[in-house]
Each structure stands twice: as C-alpha cells, then as structure tokens.
Design a protein that fits this description.
Distance between the termini: 13 Å
Shape: globular
Number of strands: 0
Structural class: mainly alpha
C-alpha cells in the first residue's frame, strides 16, 4: 500500500525538476523549489523511515559514499579561498540532493511506487521536451540552429533530457502494442533531443539503450515492426533537423572529425589540459567548489589563447569532482561507479535492472566529456536515480 503523503511529496519534487534552478529568495537566502519542499517535508518523513535505509549492505555503502563525498567537498571548501558560490554549491548540489535520497529510498522500496515514479518521470521529461520545442518561436535556438530552450546551452538541455530519452526508448521497446499517440510522444522526445546536436549526449544515449537491450534481452524481439519503425523514425528526425539547420550540424560534424582547432573537441582538450594542471598543483584538496571559472582564467598564462573563456566546469565528471572535492571526492565517485555496476546483480527484476543500469551508464558515459552533475536539475535527478536503485535492493517481500 502506498503511503500517500510521502509519495505525494516525492511526486512534487519530480514535477519541480524542470524548475530546480529557479532561485527563490526568502529573507534574502537563495533557495530553490525542491529545496523548499524538502526543507518543509523532510522532518516529518525521516523520523520513522530513515532506519529502513540501513537494512542492506548496499544502501549502507551508498550512505558511506555520501559521507565521504560530503567530507571531501567540505574539506576542499575550507582548504581553499572560501566563496559564497562554493557554500551555495555544498547546500544545493550535495546536502539537499542527499536529503532527497534519504527521503525517497524507503518510499521506493515498494515496486508499485517505483512503477509510478518511472511513469511520472517519463511524462515530466516529455512535458519539458514539448515546452522546449515551443521555445523555437521565442528565441530558443542558438546562432547555429541548435535547440537550447531556456538553458544556457544546447548541451545542458541534452543532459537534462538524456534520462527521459532512455526511459521513453525503453518503454517503447518493451511494449507489445504501440498506440499512435505514444509514437507521436516518442518522436517529440527524440526530436527535441536530436535538435540539441549534442554528440556527447547522443553517444551516451546510444550506449545506454544498447545496454538496456542487452540486459533486458529485448534484442530478441528485433524483428518486431516497432524496432524498424523507431529506427526509420530516428533517421528521418535526424536528417530533417540537420538539413533544416542550414547545414550547421554538418559543419559542426566536419570540424569534429577533421580535428579542426575550432571544434568542440579541440576546445575540450584545452580545458582538460588546464584542469589536469590544476590537479597536479592541488592533488589532495582540489581548488574548492565553485572556483573553476576563476582558476581557469588564472591558468591562461600557461597556454596559448583559450578557445573558450566562459567555462564553469572542466567538461569531465571525474575532473569536476576531483577539483571541487579533492582526492576524497574523486575516490568516492569512482568507487560508487564501480560499486553500482557490481551490485546490479542484486536486483531480481530484469527490466528494472536493465533500466537502472542504462540510466547510470548514460550518466557516466556522458560524464567523460561533460558534467551531468553540478547543476540543481542534474544533482536531483542523479540522487533520485540512486534512490530508485536503493529502493530496488530494499524491495519488500
């Protein structure tokens, strides 16, 4: 039986994810919508339920990971020039997302709750994609015809939609009968994602969907018409968007494969070299949370003129954690990555195992050349996914 009040709070947090970076200022204190909900609701939800989280070794280990990560970020903050931005990141990117994990994990130990959460996540991401598509008429395209909607860049929109794309593809691939409206919604979700022209996110989605097919054994159904329809639809959507963009997508791809110094890969290589030198200079404590842009500009003297100047993060998940939380932070994220995939065998439901594995693989693959974490939406999605995994291993008999 679903406990209505805690579950309702969780659903409110899910539908607030697209607005997670909208800043509220009660009494002049920066606060975000999901943080406000958790601040009010968590004291009433944690008292009786938090003990359930520590019933298994897996969830206890995840909690230890959270403690090490928090210890690393606080130590790095105190060991470097302290900034309000860094303090805000500790609050918004670590404390409240971990609080969401503590609140959500006991709720998601019930299969019916997880099933409904996946349903709400699919439709929340679809609603976001629809709104992003309509933003084309309100300046939602960049100068090179990439869809960014209200995000600062197309890559950020792609990173946010990535879990939704995985969920919709998994849903469609497993259905025996597809309704027309579901096909339309899948096409909207996929089309908006492709319109970002974010190749890193494309690779991550492709790897995640292949992983889902392999673990769920859905590939044995490849002869079904839905497979062929989805592949043809993807081809048509991609072709239409790239040609409709005035050849901008083709130009971007040409720069990438020819290794042009103006390509996004060349720009990232310069950022990675700069980030690695920062790590060599501060390997134990990093540079502190929220300081990458400032330190990145200081390191200009060691390199030729940068291709990009406004760089809030090093375009790599593991470099970001190392620089923001020191050696303890990068150790915890690498350990979590290995531990999660090792512990997947504890999930008895093959479909759930395939789905949660695909979601985590998508995050870690795209994290090789981007940072799907240090933004409110991404942090809450990450810890909610971790809560879904934790709920699966806490399943009620």
């Amino acid at each position: 039986m679903i406990a209505n009040k805690p579950f309702f709070v969780l659903l409110v947090c899910i539908w607030l994810l697209p607005f997670a970076s909208v800043q509220l200022l009660p009494f002049g204190i920066p606060l975000y919508p999901i943080e406000a909900v958790l601040l009010v609701a968590s004291p009433f939800l944690l008292e009786r339920r938090i003990r359930n989280i520590f019933q298994t070794r897996i969830t206890r280990n995840i909690f230890i990971f959270a403690l090490i990560l928090c210890g690393g970020i606080i130590t790095s903050f105190l060991s470097n020039p302290e900034t309000l931005i860094g303090l805000g990141q500790i609050k918004s990117f670590f404390f409240f997302p971990i609080l969401l994990w503590l609140v959500a994990t006991p709720i998601l130990s019930e299969f019916e709750c997880r099933k409904r959460v996946f349903w709400h996540l699919r439709w929340m991401f679809l609603a976001t994609a629809v709104c992003a598509a309509t933003s084309v008429f309100f300046g939602g395209l960049t100068y090179d015809y990439r869809l960014s909607a209200w995000f600062q860049s197309p890559n950020l929109l792609a990173l946010f939609l990535l879990p939704g794309v995985i969920l919709w593809w998994a849903y469609m691939l497993l259905k025996e009968r597809i309704f027309v409206y579901e096909g339309i919604f899948w096409a909207i979700m996929t089309g908006v994602f492709v319109a970002t022209q974010s190749y890193g996110a494309f690779v991550a989605a492709f790897a995640a969907i292949l992983s889902f097919l392999w673990i769920s054994r859905a590939y044995v159904l490849w002869k079904r018409p839905v497979f062929k329809i989805m592949l043809i639809g993807l081809l048509l959507i991609g072709t239409g968007i790239f040609l409709g963009g005035g050849g901008a997508g083709i130009t971007k791809w040409t720069l990438l494969i020819t290794g042009d110094e103006r390509s996004s890969l060349s720009s990232r290589e310069m950022i990675w070299r700069s980030a690695w030198k920062m790590i060599q200079d501060s390997p134990v404590f990093g540079i502190g949370p929220g300081r990458f842009q400032e330190v990145y500009l200081e390191y200009q003297r060691f390199y030729p003129p940068y291709l990009e100047w406004a760089v809030p993060h090093p375009h790599n998940l593991f470099l970001s954690f190392w620089l923001s939380s020191g050696i303890f932070g990068v150790f915890s994220i690498v350990w979590l990555c290995l531990f999660l995939f090792y512990s997947m065998r504890q999930i008895s439901c093959k479909t759930e195992k395939a789905l949660i594995g695909a979601l985590f693989l998508g995050v870690f693959v795209v994290g090789l050349w981007d940072v799907p974490y240090f933004r409110a939406e991404f942090c809450f999605v990450f810890w909610l996914t971790l809560a879904l995994f934790s709920g699966m291993v806490l399943r009620k008999k």
